[in-house]
Design a protein that fits this description.
single chain, about 400 residues, alpha/beta, Alpha-D-Glucose-1,6-Bisphosphate, Chain A, domain 3, TATA-Binding Protein, 5-stranded mixed beta sheet, 15 helices, 17 strands, about 20% strand
Length: about 400
């Protein structure tokens, strides 16, 4: 991801999407450089740029609509380590781009596009406050609640503690000192153990951890037990009386069984919030999400928002008069192991004829368990997920399958 490439990407995106375009970023060291390059590309195509600064990805989606922009762009690599970075575009209203629009942008990267006058930068740093006020409209009264907030040194490092404090909670905040290189390092939704330990040791009511770009939320109950996206889906489905919920191939079998027992159905789709959103439309489901903490509430917004997820979950707990620990008790998850297999060409490995055979053999070793093998959407790895009733066997099967896949290169 070089400045030269991002400049060209900005020009191509302007040709396809038009303008104005709202631009935000996370706290990575490369963010300001790539932001300047993207803005330069957009400006050279005659497009007006609203610069939001460091804000969560869902803030850009929301502000794209709030500022009546034709498109939004986020410079972030989400939960990945700091050397990685990327650009994600939203269409009008902050919706994910259609595949056709993405393909057209890629095609225009190969063309020489004309320079156009008229582009200008509008400093829109007040957008963060607009987004914060939008979130507060969904916040329950949190007076008396003691909560550990982990911002992962990422895009929520300022707004998350402020949000929960304004809603009335007593906040103990960690991960709020970004230096450009510490985003997601040992903290956040991908490493919530520190947050969970502090909840337990400090005697707080619960904790919530966000990932680097703020579209995921992972919780810890008062005992320090982790509650992920599956627990959030189950809680909201039961409290709201929903009978249709969308998960992914990674959603735990325990969630599927618990929902079925409550008279609800879990629809599965590929990993990725865009696929969850599409399946929600297809099945007319009001709720969908992933174990990673990506959750979409159809009646509130059309993309995942970690801060909104946290507020709505706290509201559901208050409405039901329950504690998060009650829901962790209510949904004991099957042991699930994920192995990351580094490969040079993940797509070539995935089409290898032996993959299906290896998966079938692994599933045969499990009694009532599942195996899922997929390429990572952001890294050169194959992700192997194995779950079943017996943890020791699950771990053994996962290691063996990962080793076998690694040998296919």
């Amino acid at each position: 991801m070089t400045p030269e490439f991002v400049l060209g990407l900005g020009r191509a995106a302007a040709a396809v999407l038009g303008g104005p375009v709202g631009v935000g970023r996370d706290t990575r060291a490369s963010g300001p450089m790539l932001e300047a390059a993207l803005a330069a590309g957009l400006l050279s195509a005659g497009v007006e740029v609203f610069r939001f600064g460091v804000v969560p990805t869902p803030a850009v989606a929301y502000l794209t609509g709030a500022y009546a922009a034709r498109a939004g762009a986020v410079i972030s690599a989400s939960h990945n380590p700091y050397p990685d970075n990327g650009v994600k575009f939203f269409g009008e209203g902050g919706r994910k781009l259609a595949d056709e629009a993405e393909a057209e942008i890629e095609a225009r990267l190969e063309r020489v596009l004309p320079y156009r006058e008229g582009g200008r930068v509008v400093e829109a740093t007040e957008g963060a406050e607009r987004y914060l006020n939008h979130l507060l409209r969904h916040a329950p009264d949190l007076a008396g609640l003691r909560i550990v907030v982990d911002a992962a040194h990422g895009a929520t490092y300022r707004i998350a503690p402020e949000l929960f404090s304004r809603a009335g909670a007593e906040v103990f905040a960690i991960g709020t000192s970004p230096d450009g290189k510490n985003i997601n390092r040992g903290l956040g939704a991908t490493a919530p153990e520190t947050m969970a330990r502090l909840v337990r040791e400090l005697g707080f009511d619960l904790g919530v951890a966000f990932d680097g770009d703020g579209d995921r939320a992972i919780f810890a109950d008062r005992h320090g037990r982790i509650a992920g996206g599956d627990h959030v889906l189950y809680l909201h489905a039961r409290v709201s009386g929903l009978d249709r919920v969308v998960g992914t191939t990674m959603s735990n079998l325990a969630l599927e069984h618990a929902l079925a027992k409550a008279g609800a159905r879990l629809f599965r789709t590929k990993v990725g919030d865009r696929y969850v959103a599409e399946k929600m439309e297809e099945e007319d489901a009001g709720l969908g999400g992933e174990p990673s903490g990506h959750v979409i509430f159809k009646d509130h917004f059309h993309t995942g928002d970690g801060l909104l997820t946290a507020l709505l979950t706290l509201a559901a707990l208050k409405k039901s008069g329950t504690d998060l620990a009650d829901w962790v008790d209510a949904l004991p998850l099957y042991p699930q192991v994920i192995e990351n297999v580094p490969v040079r060409d993940k797509h070539r490995v995935m089409v290898h004829p032996k993959v299906a055979e290896l998966v079938k053999e692994a599933e045969a070793r499990l009694e009532g368990g599942r195996v899922n093998v997929r390429p990572s959407g952001t890294e050169p790895v194959i992700r192997v997920m194995v779950e079943g009733p017996e943890e020791a066997l699950v771990r053994e099967v996962a290691r063996a399958l990962a080793k076998a896949l690694s040998a296919l290169e």
